[in-house]
Amino acid sequence: MSRNYSRSRCSVSAHGERSSKNEKSASYVPDMLALVESRDYAGPIALLQIKLQADAHDKNALEWLAFCYFHNQDYDEALTTYKQLLLLVPDLSYNTYIAACLFRLGLYTESEEALLKGPECPMQKRILFHIAHRKNDEKSLMRYHENLGESMEDQLNLAAMHFLRMHYEEAIEVYKRFFLEHRDVLALNVYIALCYYKLDKFDVSMELLNKYLQVYP
User: Fold this and answer.
1) Fewest CB atoms within 10 A around its CB: which of 54, 75, 82, 85?
2) How far apart are CA 42 and CA 21, in angstroms?
């Protein structure tokens, strides 16, 4: 996507949680937002590692570090950091993030076990939805499909599932419906273009790609 929707949850901390520390201790957050805006996570990771040398138990810094590791596709490092956070703060929601790391590492059974230790939430259901697909568990897949709502995240996951199962027309229908309400999300042109490419409709695919490339060359 051209926009990282996780950013909308990290205006105060890496997971949208208000820090309990004073303003001085959280003063580095705006700078961190500016750095991740460029999607170059190496800089923030280096800065956070330095910050943690002074206070290895800085919860806010650890959350940002795990966030940056994950988006930099350093899933092993993100997993280790989330496990460290879980030991530091008995917040069961970290199990959901641990599960996301395990899923990216292809450890689907372990991911499912971690999810069941965490609270019920939309993210948990979305990951379980994809685990069911990876395990070829059609019964569970249909059950989690029925639990998807109308949120941006749920609908994009539904479209992604259609694509993974080679239901390209269905994926296009979801993306187009969503695009009518969110014209500013230009990356949807790329997703729709890829579906048309898979349907051998190359001219339509190229036309959609050009709309995105005009803004993000």
Assistant:
1) 54
2) 25
- 3-state DSSP call for residue 20? coil
Which residue stretches of the chain are H helix? 29-37, 42-54, 59-71, 75-88, 94-104, 108-117, 122-134, 138-146, 152-164, 168-181, 188-198, 202-213
Tokens 């899933």 correspond to what residue? 75
**Tens-digit pLDDT profile for the chain (217 aa)?**
333 334 333 333 455 444 444 444 445 565 677 777 778 898 889 989 999 999 999 999 999 999 999 999 999 999 999 999 999 998 999 999 999 999 999 999 999 999 999 999 999 999 999 999 999 999 999 999 998 988 989 999 999 999 999 999 999 999 999 898 888 899 999 999 999 999 999 999 999 999 999 998 8
Tell me which residue of 93, 59, 99 sits closest to 78, measured CA to CA. Answer: 99
Amino acid code (one letter) for 77: E
CA-CA distance, 196 to 215, in Å (whole number)? 21
CA distances from 105 to 9, 67, 102 (A): 24, 16, 5
Using CB atoms within 10 Å of the CB of residue 91, give its burial: 0 to 12 exposed, 13 to 18 middle, 19+ buried. middle
